[in-house]
Amino acid sequence: MNIAVYPGSFDPITKGHLDIITRGSKIYDKLIVAVLVNVDKKCLFNIEERVELIKKVTKNLKNVEVLSFEGLLVDFAKIHNSKVILKGLRTISDFEYEFQMALMNSKLNPDIETVFMMTSSAYSYVSSSSVKQVAKFGGNIEGLVPNELISEIIDKF
Ligand code: PNS
Question: Which residues bind ATP per the record (predicted)?
Fold first, then answer.
């Protein structure tokens, strides 16, 4: 079984993330969305909330599982029998950081391959932090996050 891990903070999940999850779920037998328990980063949603929001919007994707993780991503991937880390690339500016992480992960475990998928052009400008900023100041986040999460995000502010 070809299992991929799609990691992130997902604070909160955006339509850009969901696009990668949906497309990734068609390529791999199983896709594990790995939600980082951020210890040093202040998150708007706690780990349980972030996992629940992702479960809610991926419930129709039967081969998608949502789990939280702490520590090294390559260790999480190995425990879950995955040899693929799936990442979305939006822009050139993502590249440097992602390339560095891919090389570090490959150094930590050469058996695990990082695979990049280009984000759909419709979402190339969407990020969790920009969504939070727009929501904070009362802007419209429709189209940026899955519709069923809009009120939960707005309620946080
Ligand atoms: O959504 P984010 O915050 O950009 O996701 C970053 C993430 C979770 C992919 C990254 O921080 C990560 O993999 N953290 C786990 C720690 C780790 O394995 N570090 C070594 C690679 S640099």
Answer: 9-10, 17, 88-90, 98, 123-129
Identify the architecture of domain 3-155 in CATH.
Answer: 3-Layer(aba) Sandwich (3.40)
Distance from C-alpha of 100 to C-alpha of 81, rounded to nearest angstrom: 23
Of 35, 101, 105, the residue with max ligand 1 atoms within 8 A of its CB, to mutate for a pocket test, comes to 101
pTM of the model: 0.95
Question: Model confidence over 48-92: pLDDT tens digits?
Answer: 999 999 999 999 999 999 999 999 999 999 999 999 999 999 988
Q: Which residues line ligand 1 (CB under 6 A)?
A: 7-9, 36, 72-73, 101, 104-105
Mean pLDDT computed over 12-36 = 98
Q: Which residues pair with 35 in a beta bridge?
A: 8, 68
pLDDT at 23: 97
DSSP 8-state secondary structure symbol assigned to residue 142: B
Domain residue limits, the chain: 3-155
Residues whose CB falls within 8 Å of the CB of residue 56, separated by 6 or more in sequence, listed in order: 148, 149
